[in-house]
Amino acid sequence: MSIRSEITTLFEEVARDQQRQLVPLRDETKLLESGLDSLSFALIAARLEESMGFNPFDTADEFPVTFGDFIRLYESQTQSS
User: Residues 6 or more apart from 12 whose CB is under 8 A from it?
Assistant: First the structure.
C-alpha cells in the first residue's frame, strides 16, 4: 500500500470513528477545512507513528497546511530513512 493510500484510508477511518464529515481529499485541500478536528489529527498522527515507526512532526519545521503537504511530509521521511 502506498503512503498516500494508507494516509487517505486513515483519514477516512478516523473521520468515520469520530463522526466527522470529511470533505473530498485533494492535494490542495486545506487540513483546517477537511472536516477533521485536532483530536482527529492527533489520532491520525499516533496511528501513523505506530504503523510507520516515526513521527515527522518531531523534526518538522512547520505543520503542513494542505493534505498534499501532509502526504509529502510522510513521503519525505520514508525516503530519507
Answer: 22
pLDDT, tens digit only, all 81 positions of the chain:
799 999 999 999 999 999 999 999 999 999 999 999 999 999 999 999 999 888 887 877 888 999 999 999 999 887 665
> Is the pTM higher than 0.85?
yes
Categorise residue 43: left if φ over 0, alpha if ψ from -120 to 50, beta otherwise.
Answer: alpha
The total number of structural domains that make up the chain: 1
Interatomic CA distance for residues 76 and 12, integer angstroms: 22
Range of the domain at 8: 3-80
- CATH, residue 56: 1.10.1200.10
